[in-house]
């Protein structure tokens, strides 16, 4: 028997990455006590006959890998044990049997399985597998091949497609096998593969590879079989290849998908979070994990959800590619067509069994109906690019007909529907009566949206503007015109400065700084306010979200049913839904009272506890200095911090953007100023207007700084820009 594994320093794995300071971490008991050969008892759900198994082909059981490397295995074992302990009903009998076989393997064989699982699925060249920590690979491969259910495939048995084989070769190897038969070898890998296949097929008429007379199937496929010299030539260069069997890959990826509450398809990096956290490189907030064992009611619900997630991912890859050719877009839309019918069935089933309580919204993200809704929402953009406005409007109406999924998207859907009805609902040369009918349809859509409780105020203001235009076209009497109940928004005073243009970078104008070097418009404005005694950051939402997370730490990570499913969450699952505030309203309001009077103590305590760990959590940037945050908080004041935090807590997803570009403060005067910067031709968005109104309402000093570009020396605008403006210059 080999010597027990050496326990090495877990803070250093040989990389040059800076050490992450974290609390002392003890080795897991399994790493302290494990010898190099023991077999663990079978996991729950394992067949009885898997408790003891004979070693495979070799009398010597492979040694266990060193302790640090075992973290890959320990991480996967933890995932597997958790799933089998509470959600084994989501796995089939065949999958449970595979889990049992895995558990019966030697430590080294388990380790190699997990390391292969972490790689991209597919064939791997044996010569490229480099895991010296497990010793010789041959006995481990033999064990995996001879298990009760083989976990490994060998290429000499199942790799029969020459194209797949050629794709495993390097560019130089492809050139080498092509050159003897065609000195004019292509240069790229795809071209070389195509050239080799063409040469192989052109030789099909030779006697050694001619299809038998009447063998229509062979002639129709035009494939090059493994018996072909062309296949054998490439196989000799490739060498031995192996892969996890498709059943093993699918089963263990499903285990990881269940454990991590997947919202994206599982890939080779699925274990990265667990491993990095286990070795202390990544640290997550400390909270009580309470898994919802009924998140997926049965296996069929899980499989449907998995399939929908993969489809959403595939559609995202297509739509994010930037391609706009019609054939490509029609391919993307074709993925969505069958979803529409299935989605309607989901809506009907959910409507019959569920209410519209916002408290359940975050759990609905793990239903096939929610994923289908996201797919259809994205497909409207495909139809927009295709200019199929009629189908897009019909689909938007479908989405708006339900109030179960993606409720906070309703405002955007209404806006888009009203725009289609306005611009594409009627021809420009249509009769007056037809135009009036179209305008009334737009008006009805806007009125419907304004009565919808899930449409945000910023979206309603856009719809009010469109509604006013329609009512003006219709010539309605004053008594029939819609009277908005939305309050008037406060406006920030405007400061205008001029700056010298110095070209552009990434389609953004660049200006000449006070030192003569090029800078962005925000840095130009920062220099302007520095002359007035301010320090500041160009941080947009970053600083406000950091303050919110620090001040709300005790609320965010307090124990709450169903919102912490794994130890690796940067935020509670319901933070981006209405449920976060509604389910904790009493707690949040009590905490806000505490924030108003003790914000400095809260900031200091949480920072000192979490910043040394570089805790990975929502919204926070550890690059700030605590002294700066305390000065900023003091300059803002308790009431102002409460107003900002309450606005974020009520709808974090919608309110996390749109905050002013610059955060400025003067510690001597104990004064804070928020500045929104706008260059030539830039205007405020509705979310920016809303945040300016919120900040002003709570007594925060806010300014809108407009930058006027000049081609020569900057100077003061003698005319000003209105009663609300101050004009200065950058010399």
Describe the structure.
The protein has 731 residues and is an alpha/beta fold. The chain has four domains: 29-151 and 245-278, no CATH class; 162-243; 299-480, Serine Threonine Protein Phosphatase 5, Tetratricopeptide repeat, CATH 1.25.40; 494-727, no CATH class. The strands form two sheets. Strands 4, 5, 6, 7, 8, 9, 10 and 11 form an eight-stranded mixed sheet that branches. Helix 15 packs antiparallel against helix 17 (368-386), helix 18 runs antiparallel to helix 19 (410-423) and helix 20 (432-450) packs antiparallel against helix 21 (457-474). The chain is globular, with a radius of gyration of 32 Å.
Instruction: Work out the strand percent.
Output: 5-15%
How many strands in all? 11
What's the end-to-end separation, in Å?
A: 79 Å
The total number of structural domains is 4
The biggest sheet, with number of strands, parallel, antiparallel or mixed sense and barrel status, is: 8 strands, mixed
Helical coverage, percent range? 40-55%
Low-confidence stretches: 1-61, 205-221, 714-731
Q: Give the overall shape, derived from the CA principal axes.
A: globular
Query: What's the pLDDT, averaged over the residues?
Result: 84
Question: With helices defined by DSSP (H or I, 4 residues minimum), what is the helix count?
Answer: 30
Structural class: alpha/beta
Question: Keyphrases for this structure?
Answer:
single chain, 731 residues, alpha/beta, Serine Threonine Protein Phosphatase 5, Tetratricopeptide repeat, 4 domains, eight-stranded mixed sheet, three-stranded antiparallel sheet, 11 strands, 48% helix, globular, disordered N terminus, disordered C terminus
